[in-house]
Amino acid sequence: MYTSEPRYWRNLSEPVLTVLTGPSAVGKGTVVQHAKNSADRMWLSVSATTRDPRPGEVDGVHYRFVTDAEFDDLIDAGKMLEYAVVHGHHRYGTPSDPVEQALADGLAPLLEIDLDGARQVREHAPNARFVFMAPPSWDELVRRLTGRGTETPEQIARRLETARTELAAQDEFDHVIVNTDVSAAAAELVDLMGLSSDTPR
């Protein structure tokens, strides 16, 4: 169990960890990049993974590439806020030490993860800020997902089924941002994180 919970306590004079989730194709990544461009103190968490780097990927930028043994050590030491096995083989997760360091440096950490990961973080850091990003409507989510043209019909069907489950869980979150407009959603996220003016709080 992760034991450094006091670091995440909601103190108005200090930044807190923010966890963002939402269904596939809702636009989380695009909104986060817009938000980061207007909030220098926002710190984006980088996931650790046991898979090998792909061409062009940089350790510490795209992912933190670790061995299976190193991943096991992080789990055993209680230093993973959340983790999961993807495609039945490689593991991905959020190490707690970089998040702790960001908070110590006065930065506002943001984790963009899936619903299961957010629930794991809540177990370890219940006083973090949990934000759900929703589409303006189900039909719009379907349009965005099918419009990407990157998945087969079977993959789309699976993603939509997962999306139904995720949307049903939005009441678990502290805040819901409806992504009707990217700029507006990014501004709302920045505001929720207390970074609107990007000055020390």
TrEMBL record:
<dbReference type="InterPro" id="IPR027417">
    <property type="entry name" value="P-loop_NTPase"/>
</dbReference>
<dbReference type="InterPro" id="IPR008145">
    <property type="entry name" value="GK/Ca_channel_bsu"/>
</dbReference>
<dbReference type="GO" id="GO:0005829">
    <property type="term" value="C:cytosol"/>
</dbReference>
<dbReference type="InterPro" id="IPR017665">
    <property type="entry name" value="Guanylate_kinase"/>
</dbReference>
<dbReference type="InterPro" id="IPR008144">
    <property type="entry name" value="Guanylate_kin-like_dom"/>
</dbReference>
<protein>
    <recommendedName>
        <fullName>Guanylate kinase</fullName>
        <ecNumber>2.7.4.8</ecNumber>
    </recommendedName>
</protein>
<dbReference type="GO" id="GO:0004385">
    <property type="term" value="F:GMP kinase activity"/>
</dbReference>
<feature type="domain" description="Guanylate kinase-like">
    <location>
        <begin position="15"/>
        <end position="194"/>
    </location>
</feature>
<comment type="similarity">
    <text>Belongs to the guanylate kinase family.</text>
</comment>
<dbReference type="InterPro" id="IPR020590">
    <property type="entry name" value="Guanylate_kinase_CS"/>
</dbReference>
<dbReference type="GO" id="GO:0005524">
    <property type="term" value="F:ATP binding"/>
</dbReference>
<keyword id="KW-0963">Cytoplasm</keyword>
<keyword id="KW-0808">Transferase</keyword>
<feature type="binding site">
    <location>
        <begin position="22"/>
        <end position="29"/>
    </location>
    <ligand>
        <name>ATP</name>
    </ligand>
</feature>
<dbReference type="Pfam" id="PF00625">
    <property type="entry name" value="Guanylate_kin"/>
</dbReference>
<keyword id="KW-0067">ATP-binding</keyword>
<keyword id="KW-0547">Nucleotide-binding</keyword>
<keyword id="KW-0418">Kinase</keyword>
<comment type="function">
    <text>Essential for recycling GMP and indirectly, cGMP.</text>
</comment>
